[in-house]
Every structure is written in structure tokens, then in C-alpha cells.
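Recall the central idea of this unit: under ordinary conditions, the amino acid sequence of a chain determines the structure it adopts. In this exercise we apply that idea directly, starting from the sequence alone.
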Amino acid sequence: MQQCNLKGQRIGYIRVSSTDQNPDRQLEGVETDKLFIDHASGKDTQRPQLEAMLAYAREGDVVVVHSMERLARNLDDLRRLVQQLTHRGISITFLKESLTFTGSDSPMAQLLLSVMGDLELPRLKTLPLSPKVGLL
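Accordingly, the structure predicted from this sequence is:
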């Protein structure tokens, strides 16, 4: 009996808040089979390319995102999106945080998602002021 070895696609997701931001830097040097780019606020998950990526991704695929805050701006949305993907057999990798979630994650991995998201996402509230006060 011949074993079928299906390999999923590597799907990139990029989100920039405004049209003057350069989306190319987020996944620079990362090879993808398909790329989805949103020019939208991350205040909610109602984004055309995010919705298209979620509809396009299939079991065995890997979604690659620069960082957690590029996917979601609050912990509830982040957890829901990660679970939505992983429950369908789609892995998600966050490059900045060096984390991958597969759906077969242990309770410790779920805790790590919550802790890292809880640490990373609140930092966003201070970012608009940072360039003005010279912190970036």
C-alpha cells in the first residue's frame, strides 16, 4: 500500500494599519505559497483579507504571521483566531514570538498563548505615543 504524504501550503498574513506603512517588512525573507495583506486597523477581526485567508486555509497548511499583534489587538480575538485555525488542522506560526500552535498543543501551550498575548497586546496601547517621546 502506497502512503500518501500531503504537504500543506505556507500561507502568509500581513496587516498594516495605514496605506503609508510598508507591508513588505513583516514577512521579509519568508517564503509563502499564498499571501494575504490587509490595510486595516486591528481593532476587530472584520478584515477582508483575514476573512479570505481563513476561508482559503485548509487542513495541513501553516499560516505565518509576523507577530501576535498583527493578527489581533486583544487577547480574546487572538485566542479565538488561533483556536479557529488549529481546530481545523491548520498550524499558525508567530515569527517575532518564535511560537507555533498546531491544535495538538498541550494545556501548557494554551497557557503560553494567553501569557504571551497578555504581555504583548497591552503594549500596543503605548505605541502611538512612543515615537513622539523618542522611545522608538
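The chain has four helices and five strands.
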